[in-house]
Amino acid sequence: VMSVLFGLIFGQAASLCAPSEYTIHVEKRECAYCLAINTTICAGFCMTRDSNGKKLLLKSALSQNVCTYKEMLYRTALIPGCPHHTIPYYSYPVAVSCKCGKCNTDYSDCVRERVRTNYCTKPQKLCNL
Q: Name one Pfam family in it (predicted).
C-alpha cells in the first residue's frame, strides 16, 4: 500500500507541466514593425518510461510523454505599420491548461528548438493581451 501511495504522490510531484509565460516575436516583410506578443505556452517536465529492452517490448509499453496543451484558445493581434494591401493580423495559441501526453504535431512543435530564432529584426512594439 505504501509503495502505491508513494508512486502516486511522486508521479504527481514529478510531472511539473503547466502554462508558462512566453513572448513570441512576429514580423512580416511588408510591415514596419516587429510585434512582441506576451502569451502562455505549455512547458515543464513529464514522467516518462524508456526501457533498455526496447526491442523486446511493444511500442505501447513505452511511454514518451511531453508537456502539451489540454485546453487552449486562439487570440489575434494586429501587426502595426503594415501597408493596406497586406493582411496585418497574426493568430497565436494561448495555453489555458496543460497535461502530460503524446505530442500532437497538428498544433505543437515536438522537438527541442536548437537555434534561437525568436527575435526581432525591425523596431519592436509590445502587445499585452
A: Cys_knot
* pLDDT less than 70: residues of the chain: 1-15, 49-63, 107-118, 126-129
Range list of H helices, the chain? 2-14
- The count of domains in the chain is 1
- CA pair distance 56, 88, nearest whole angstrom: 53
> Where residue 31 sits, what CATH number does that domain have?
2.10.90.10
pLDDT mean across residues, the chain: 77
- Among residues 18, 20, 27, which one has the least CA distance to residue 127? 27
DSSP β-ladder status, 124-128 and 34-45: parallel
Assess if residue 5 is contained within a domain.
no
